[in-house]
Amino acid sequence: MLELYTDRLKIRSLQRADWQVFLSIHQDLELNQFVRRPDSIQAISDKFEARLLPWLFDSGDWLTLTIEEIDTGNIIGFTGLYASNVDLGHAEVGYMLSQAGQGQGYATESLAAVIDWASLSHQVHKFIGLCATENRASVRVLEKCGFQLEGVLRHNYRIDDRWIDDCCFGLLTHERAL
User: Fold this and answer.
1) Do residues 99 and 76 touch, judged by C-beta distance below 8 A?
2) What is the 3-state secondary structure (H, E, C) of 72-133?
3) Do 155 and 164 form a contact (C-beta atoms < 8 A)?
4) What is the 3-state secondary structure (H, E, C) of 3-72?
5) What is the pLDDT of residue 145?
6) Whole-prediction pTM value?
7) Residue 128 in contact with residue 92, Cβ under 8 Å?
8) What are phi and psi of 56, to 5 degrees?
9) C-alpha–C-alpha distance, residues 47 and 53, integer Å
10) Phi, psi for residue 84 in degrees, rounded to 5
11) Nearest-5° angle of CA 87, CA 124, CA 60?
């Protein structure tokens, strides 16, 4: 079981007891407005079950980690990564926090911990972050973690009848703040 700690957070392997928070976050329309149309409960359950399985860096699967407040034990969201290109040492990062966990620096703090761990444990050369251009909060998280905007992917995906442009951010491991 993976456990990472920051001053305020415990970032740990996903557990079966995390299901209700996982479901709630994946069904929240506002949280998902820049990501996807919320899936069916069955699809979310299938995703959850897949992410409970043992993870290997080169599997091509997402490592999903639960973010807990140390003081309260409250689960405030999820973060993680997957090896988008093992040969090049590229890993895409992601995070999604509940409404209660937003605006307190938790996404930045947890992402920085995941980046440090992955840099040391898996020799990641480059981290990649994608987020909708309209998602200013997510853009700020990536920038605070040292990511640089590398481009905009116009009309990269669609949610209902709305095309979404994605910002493509990159962080080379040697550029990360220590």
Assistant:
1) no
2) CCCEEEEEEEEEEECCCCEEEEEEEECHHHCCCCHHHHHHHHHHHHHHHHHCCCEEEEEEEC
3) yes
4) EEECCCEEEEECCHHHHHHHHHHHHCCCCCCCCCCCCCHHHHHHHHHHHHCCCCHHHCCCEEEEEEECCC
5) 96
6) 0.93
7) yes
8) -125, 140
9) 10
10) -75, -25
11) 55
Place of tokens 């910002």: 167
3-state secondary structure of 147: coil
Q: Is 9 helix (H, G, I), strand (E, B) or coil?
A: strand
C-alpha gyration radius of the chain: 15
Strands 90-97, 126-132: pairing is parallel
Q: Which two tokens stand for residue 76?
A: 């405030």
Residue 123 CA: distances (Å) to CA of 14, 103, 147: 23, 31, 17
Q: Do 22 and 44 contact (CB within 8 A), yes or no?
A: yes
83-126 pLDDT, tens per residue?
999 999 999 999 999 999 999 999 999 999 999 999 999 999 99
Structure tokens at 101: 């966990």
Strand partners of residue 148: 170
Domains and CATH numbers, the chain: 3-175 (3.40.630.30)
